[in-house]
């Protein structure tokens, strides 16, 4: 199972010089908790950072910094990326080791393809568990029908 199979391809991006207010408005408008910061290199969007809703609260609001005094570049964390061909379980181990909940997914040229989040993986696992429960229930029903025949 590769990361590219399960990552979210709809990613909200911005540039280094975007204001913090604009980033917060993007998060609100798109109902997301993060915005990826990219640098345009030709036709490639190269991820260079990430700003999360938590960054805005901890780094800006809690410190009472004026919104117009900082840009994305001042608040973002460096982007730790993963290849879309990487194994999903290996990627989860790397995320755990790095202590990150979101990881930009890139192609072989380093261009942004999507993002893998803990929420995406939880949804995948929940779907898999639901399928297993349905399988067991179906198996029990089928066995019951077969065994009840004379």
List the helices and strands and how they pair.
Blueprint: H1 3-6, E1 13-14, H2 20-30, E2 34-41, E3 44-52, H3 53-61, H4 72-75, E4 77-78, E5 82-83, H5 88-98, E6 102-106, E7 112-117, H6 118-147
Parallel strand pairs: 1-2, 5-6
Antiparallel strand pairs: 2-3, 3-4, 6-7
Low-confidence stretches: none
**What is the N-to-C succession of helices and strands?**
HEHEEHHEEHEEH
What CATH architecture do you see?
Roll
Structural class assignment: alpha/beta
CATH topology: CBS-domain
Question: Strand content of the residues, in percent?
Answer: 15-25%
For CATH, the homologous superfamily is named as CBS-domain
Annotation, overall tally of beta strands: 7
Multimeric state of these chains?
Answer: single chain
Overall geometry: elongated
Helix content: 40-55%
Cα gyration radius (Å):
21 Å
Structure description:
The protein has one domain: CBS-domain (Roll), CATH 3.10.580.10. The protein has 6 helices and 7 strands. The chain has helices at residues 3-6, 20-30, 53-61, 72-75, 88-98, 118-147, and strands spanning 13-14, 34-41, 44-52, 77-78, 82-83, 102-106, 112-117. The strands form 2 sheets. The protein has a 4-stranded mixed β-sheet. The protein has a 3-stranded mixed β-sheet with strand order 5-6-7. The longest helix is centred in the C-terminal third of the chain and has 30 residues, at 118-147. The N and C termini lie far apart (45 Å). The model has no long low-confidence stretch (mean pLDDT 90).
